[in-house]
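Review form for a predicted model. The reviewer records the input and the model, then writes brief findings.
Reviewer: anonymous (R2)
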Amino acid sequence: MTLVIENAGAEKGYLLLNQQGEWQIAASGTIDSDAVKVRDAIPIETFSKTILFNAIIDYVVRTKDSVVLSDAANVGNFTRDSYIHQQQPKSILSFPLLNQGKLIGIVYLENNLTTGAFTPERMEILNLLSSQAAISIENATLYNTLELKVTERTQELSQALKDLKATQKQLVESEKMAALGGLVAGVAHEINTPVGTSITVASTLADETRLFITAVEQGKLKRSVLNNYLEIARESTDLILSNLNRAGELVQSFKQVAVDQTSLEHRTFLVKQYLEEIITSLTPKLKQASHTLTVTGDETVTINSYPGALAQIFTNLVMNSLTHAYQLHESGQLRI
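Model under review:
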């Protein structure tokens, strides 16, 4: 902008560009006796009536021809314009920046000190500069547009990646909860047997205890009654203790497997013992089939790894075997 103003012999100049279908002042410059001052991005709607001759801009846009006014206030087709009366400019030059016939921009120059400021020699220099300026402006516009599109696309891809990660996390959590739900169903089914047995035996022991107390209170306690009660009490407590221990073991196994399947904690564990705990959690499924599953190996082998991952792999192997390895109603043996 500054180079154009200096070479043309103007006092002030403006570069206008079409921004989204609307002509705007993209850059402006003034030259005084001491320095060159440059201003950026002035909205044409706000200032055009006072800082430049808007009618000339309209003419250049419509015709794509240059306008040269050597004595704007006194000679030419624009002498009656309100801008001319208010500003009294002497020399005005406005020319289009064209690239392959396409209007890229408009340069508007004024000299209010002298008439005939824009000589043919200066016009020739401006013609040489305008072609290169049009190419440069169009390249810059294309680059900015491309850069904007790349930025928008990058933002879209970034958001898509975030959404994908969020969806993936939801799917993983859903799968974990589904596995945990199946595990809870297995817990309820498996614990029901020892707990139910314990309740039945405890009920029987309670009835026998009431009969025993009644016999003592009525003074009818016989040795045979005492021996019978003691035998029932011994058998009942053994059964209750055995079944409750079994229920406790089941709870502990299910608890550990459930924790492992819903987390990715790294720890040291006994391999054979852990596999047996997983089998316990699979008991409801195994009971639905006529297959047997056994695990043999060294009881002391330990590994430091992710038990949840091992549980998932082992469970998948067993379930795939139950589904695909045998014909319907066929009995099979699964050995680890």
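Findings: Residues 107 and 167 are 54 Å apart (CA to CA).
Further findings: Residues 120-217 form the longest helix (98 residues).
Recommendation: see findings above.
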